[in-house]
Write a structure and sequence with these properties.
CATH architecture: Sandwich
Keywords: Iron, Metal-binding, Oxidoreductase
Cofactor: L-ascorbate
Number of helices: 9
Pfam families: 2OG-FeII_Oxy, DIOX_N
Shape: globular
Number of strands: 13
CATH class: Mainly Beta
GO molecular function, one term: metal ion binding
Radius of gyration: 20 Å
Family: Belongs to the iron/ascorbate-dependent oxidoreductase family.
Strand content: 15-25%
Oligomer: single chain
Number of domains: 1
CATH topology: Jelly Rolls
Distance between the termini: 53 Å
Length: about 325
């Protein structure tokens, strides 16, 4: 007999009642006086143009933004607005499926995530749900039933487009530090790159509840398409700033692996999502990762970090989250 849940979807407060019963002790995030900010906006059309001076200026803008911000926005990125709009429509449909079906039936190859099972306090809890797909699984016949054939078709197109864009940007940043290989990161695998569909339901429960707790990304590079609602905050100069939504732009941010490989030249920036009290928020994220066996290493010696594989890094993150309620990250691998 299926488990019965409340009408809220997902049932955050019912299933995590021990956390939410302590909500009165929860202090608001220190966001008073928070202003909106626009990370550098870069026109990638100049990368494909014939004017070499404009192309070099674009490359310099990408590297400068990565050095100074770790976050930047791109327009004329080659991914059609129509494809992004199709993805958003399919995304909303899949999140409207009843919670019991999403959580109980290995729906879409068991890629559904919600809340924070390891959280012991509200500060560790994320008021959100997501479908996270390894790129290699999207084309698998056993992952999508006929009911979701249109979702698979759109996801395949978007994953391919974002993979191409992420590869171009990552190679530019690696070449800036002296890398001369054909592809970067080497041994990148469709089985370890991910496409994640995020949904942040409106949250009237507690003002300033995290939609996604403060974190860095455990990859080389992330490409994000967010809607017009807002709620994404990033750490800049030791202060939180809200990233102003731009419907025409994609957001790109440096991940932990790029910081490690670059010997801390590029920085993996702490960011979070604050849930909205009045309206739902949606976003789509692509994570560029190598194979689990890939040695991260560094672009030059002496290295700030010990050598580690992506698999070792992922395993350590999982251990830390389970034991401490939060990720520790790169500091675990300092020499």
């Amino acid at each position: 007999m299926p488990t019965r849940y409340s009408e809220s979807d997902p049932p955050f407060t019912e299933c995590f009642s021990a956390i939410f019963s302590e909500s009165r002790k929860f202090q608001k995030h220190e966001d008073e006086g928070l202003g909106e900010s626009e990370p550098p906006l870069i026109d990638l059309g100049n990368l494909r143009g014939k004017n070499e001076k404009e192309r070099q200026a674009c490359i310099e803008a990408i590297t400068k933004a990565s050095l100074q911000w770790g976050f930047f926005q791109v327009v004329n990125h080659g991914i059609s607005h129509e494809l992004l709009a199709q993805m958003r429509r399919e995304q909303k449909k899949v999140f409207e499926i009843p919670f019991e079906k999403k959580v109980n039936s290995r729906f879409l190859n068991d890629c559904y995530r919600w809340g924070t099972p390891t959280a012991t306090s509200l500060e560790q809890f994320s008021w959100s749900e997501a479908f996270q797909f390894p790129i290699g699984n999207i084309s698998g016949e056993d992952c999508f039933s006929r009911e979701f054939s249109s979702l698979r078709e759109v996801m395949e197109k978007l994953a391919n487009a974002m993979s191409e864009l992420a590869g171009i940007l990552a190679k530019i940043l690696a070449e800036n530090l002296g890398y001369r290989g054909h592809n970067f990161p080497e041994n990148s695998s469709k089985n370890t790159c991910f496409l994640r569909l995020n949904h942040y339901p409106k949250c009237t429960f507690s003002p300033k509840t995290f939609g996604l707790t403060p974190h860095t990304d455990s990859d080389f590079l992330t490409i994000l398409h967010q809607d017009e609602v807002g709620g994404l905050h990033m750490m800049k100069d030791f202060k939180w700033v809200a990233v102003k939504p731009n419907p025409n732009a994609l957001i790109v941010n440096i991940g932990d692996l790029f910081q490690g490989w670059s010997n801390d030249i590029y920085k993996s920036v702490i960011h979070k999502v604050v849930a909205n009290e009045n309206v739902d928020r949606y976003s789509i994220a692509y994570f560029l990762c190598p194979s689990y066996e890939s040695m991260i290493g560094s672009c030059k010696e002496p290295s700030v970090y010990k050598n580690f594989t992506f698999g070792e890094y992922r395993n350590q993150v999982e251990i830390d989250v389970k034991e401490n309620g939060q990720k520790v990250g790169l500091s675990r691998f300092l020499r």
